[in-house]
Amino acid sequence: MNRGLIFSLAILLTLAGCIGRSNHRPSPQRRPPNQTVVVRGNDPVVLKQCLGKLDRLVARYALLPDRTFGGSCDALGAVQLRDIGTPTTNLGAMTCGLANAFVNWVQNDLQDPAQEYFRSRVVKIETMGTYSCRNINGAATGRLSEHAHANAVDVSGFVLEDGRHVTVANDWTAGGDGAAFLRAVHASACRRFVTILSPDYNALHHDHLHFDMGGKSFCR
Prior knowledge:
It holds the Pfam family Extensin-like_C. It comes from Sphingomonas paeninsulae. This protein is of the alpha+beta class. It is built from six helices and eleven strands. The chain has a single domain (44-219), classed as Muramoyl-pentapeptide Carboxypeptidase, domain 2 (2-Layer Sandwich), CATH 3.30.1380. It has helices spanning 3-20, 44-56, 96-109, 111-118, 168-171, 176-189, and strands at residues 60-63, 67-68, 74-75, 78-83, 94-95, 122-129, 152-160, 165-167, 195-197, 209-212, 218-219. Strands 6, 7, 8, 9, 10 and 11 form a six-stranded mixed sheet that branches. Strands 1-4-5 form a three-stranded antiparallel sheet. It starts with a helix and ends with a strand.
């Protein structure tokens, strides 16, 4: 073979090898720095949607800062209801989901039974409060109550426009219109909340209806 041709081929092979073994390395991609996201409750998107529902209910409320307490108690994604159309006592921190269910219950489920049994309107709702750092049934040991997460409310009575006062303690087992009214609003609550407990559940609930949004669906 012609020496000139061999020399030319050698040069071409060397150049090809250099091209194939380029020493250029792409710079590594930098990961974005970790960002601290303030999350109210478990999911900020869900909270935003929940607050939008409250806005559409024309409920006045204050969005509360997330708080954690000793003993694993907390109030996350919580609001305090200020005006829901019917004056209501002792409403503290409530998770947004509980607040939504409660406002819907108050606005849609109370007045028809009141008109049916009393020919009068509910003008005041009495509760025993919402947040309380304690175990279920106030026991010394055991699981935390949903109250410990601002996820429960206890309703004890109703004041009617004509002055009548209906309470769970006095009227649940008394028969008559008072008992019928309480059982009607209890039944409607079973369509709004997750867990609903009445005096029929145990003696510890003899004076209130317990509503919460945690655990498995249960109504009694």
